[in-house]
Amino acid sequence: MAGQFGCASWNELAARIARSAPGHEGDPALLPPRPGSFIVFQPSVRFYYAAKPVLRIFDVARALAFYRDFLGFAVDWEHRFEPGLPLYMQISRGRQALHLSEHHGDGSPGAVVWIGMRGLDALHHELRAREYRHLRPAIRVMPPRLRVMELIDPFGNRLRFGERMRHAVKADGSPA
Asked: How far is CA 160 from CA 8, 39, 44, 61, 64, in A?
């Protein structure tokens, strides 16, 4: 169970739960990440029975190289009506799940998906260490309280990983 929440042990998970309890100083989702902090993705859809974002892909090997090998998503399941027909699959990392589809009419190249999260600096460091030759991700400040890292997949879809900041800032990053 602890591993599903990005924790090494039940004790670590219990400590994180206690820190987020009412009366604890600040909402952990609004706090800036601490060095060595964990990465937490928020689901793009709050209701688990609702549809996940569907992104159009044109090449399964390139999609897996980007989403699985570079971003660290896991393939949950794959579906083809029969061999040789288009692939439809679900990938996930933490609580964030996406559907990738080769089907004509599913999704539209150039779609944008917002992925709220904590641990943006840790994700940025992780991705830069992988040295993906097609992207050099950067984090930018979006006043008043957001930090965003936008990635474009091989099919033109945009993934915006965003983290709320504790204090408001100006466009140059100085306090507001």
From this structure: 27, 15, 11, 22, 19
Could you tell me if 135 and 153 are in contact, meaning their C-beta atoms sit under 8 angstroms apart?
Answer: no
Residue-wise pLDDT for 14-72, tens only, equals 666 666 555 544 444 444 555 556 788 766 655 444 568 999 999 999 999 999 999 99
Domain, as residue range, for 23: 1-29
Tokens for 87, please give them.
């692939």
Both 142 and 69 in one domain: the answer is yes
The amino acid that residue 14 corresponds to is A
| 3-state secondary structure at position 17 | helix
* Cα–Cα distance measured from residue 112 to residue 54, given in angstroms and rounded to the nearest whole number: 10
